[in-house]
Amino acid sequence: MNLLASIRIALRALRVNALRTTLTMLGIIIGVGAVITMIAVGSGAQARVEEQIRSLGSNLIIVLPGSVTSGGVRFGLGARSTLTEEDAYAIQRDIPEVQASGPALRGTGQVVAGNNNWSTAFFGVTPEYLEARQWTIASGRAFEPAEVNGAAKVALLGQTVANMLFGDTDPVGQVIRIRKVPFTVIGVLERKGQSLMGQDQDDVILMPISTARKRVLGQSQAKVRTVQNISIKIRADADITEAENQIRSLLRQRHRLQAGRDDDFWVRNLSEVLQTQEQSSRVLTLLLAAVASVSLLVGGIGILNIMLVSVTERTREIGLRMAVGARERDILTQFLVEAVTLALIGGLLGILLGVGGSYGIGHFAGWRIALRPEAIALAVSFAGAIGVFFGFYPARKASRLAPIEALRYE
Questions:
Q1: Domain boundaries, the chain
Q2: What are the two backbone dihedrals, phi and then psi, of residue 117, each rounded to the nearest 5 degrees?
Q3: How far, in Å, CA of 94 to CA of 246, rounded?
């Protein structure tokens, strides 16, 4: 008996008891659908983390002001400014692994454009900041060196600010007022999306750091060169851990910190943090898939049960086939093909359930979904393997029936 004939016999046998066949396949359908859906949800979460990694910038290190002690009182992180623009320039100049080092000052305020206004954060930065954060210009242009040195009143708008103030109108060349200071919009930044903390990275305005200090923030002369953070981009071929150690050593030297004293700054390697979160998302995806796979095992047990019942019901048929010349291998193949066919049909229906369920979750729950062809292929292959594994014992039992005893079975 060839394989095609075995498949035809298997399909005919499954149609005889359509309701029982459907109930048996239900476990496989739910199992395959659950595996596909859970992998899609987990992969979507992982893809979201990867987007956030790219939005922050690759190989990124952030340096923040640290704690200081005064009169026996130890202040918290960032309580006192300990970083300067010169620190940022020294990091880029003296450490070969550093590609760009951009200092930044931060403030908040109401921004007015015509009859519209919006409360947002603004940053005073240098051109190196844009390179370190991998922030490109969607329209217009970036700051020029002369504008940074001369404290020019020019600004770059994030996508959210541009939409809130100007809607569909091109903001380039328009005038806005930040804390009553007029600025000319020279460009709009590319969209970044949400950060890991759920903050809108596009709700921001960038201006030259000299402009922020002299015209908007109005810092005192004692803090004329201090900054609130330094964004550092490490070269792609460099060891980011070694670069971090060199940055720490250079800043300790510049700040004249003696051995044994705590750093008065805080170095944060965002790449390690984001890689850890990405790994956690990957583990979660595998865990969800493993839990969903339990449904496939339950479906396999259902196949085992129904195939044993089928062998018992068709004992006389098996005996008759053996009596007219069917070999033990033919009977084994027939029942094994029947079990695998049952599993594969359930697997194909499970694909429809999984794809539909994934899009349903993405639409109604608003989650990020990432359907992967390899996940679908894996789920169906696993369903076929379940059919072989749980169908082998009933098929072997059927093939080993004695023809005479089988013909006598009532």
A1: 3-52+276-408, 83-263
A2: -145, 160
A3: 9
Residue 259 backbone phi and psi in degrees, to 5: -60, 135
Report the distance separating Cα 188 and Cα 175, nearest Å. Answer: 13
Give the span between the Cα atoms of 15 and 30, in whole angstroms: 21
pLDDT (tens place) for every residue of the chain, 410 residues total: 566 777 777 777 778 778 888 888 888 888 888 888 888 887 887 777 666 665 555 688 899 987 655 555 455 555 567 899 999 999 999 999 999 999 999 999 999 998 999 999 999 999 999 988 888 999 999 988 889 889 999 999 999 999 999 998 999 999 999 988 999 999 999 998 776 566 788 999 999 999 999 889 875 544 568 899 999 998 888 888 899 999 999 999 999 888 888 888 888 886 666 666 667 767 777 777 777 777 778 888 888 888 888 888 878 877 887 887 777 888 888 888 888 888 888 888 989 998 998 888 888 877 778 888 887 887 788 888 888 888 888 888 888 877 777 666 65
Q: Are 78 and 64 contacting, i.e. CB atoms less than 8 angstroms apart?
A: yes
Rounded CA separation 297/227 (Å): 59
Separation of alpha carbons 331 and 327, rounded Å? 7
**Residue whose C-alpha is closest to residue 274's, from 63, 43, 49:** 49
Which residue's structure tokens are 């510049």?
A: 254
The bridge status of strand 116-125 relative to strand 204-208 is: parallel
Q: Please list, in sequence order, all residues whose beta carbon lies within 8 angstroms of the beta carbon of residue 104, skipping any fewer than 6 positions away.
A: 123, 124, 125, 129, 209, 227, 228, 229, 230, 231
Task: Identify which of 372, 383, 362 has the alpha carbon closest to the alpha carbon of residue 32.
Answer: 383
Helix (H/G/I), strand (E/B), else coil: 338: helix
* CB-CB contact of 170 with 139 (8 Å): yes
How far is CA 187 from each of CA 122, 206, 213, rounded to the nearest angstrom? 14, 10, 21
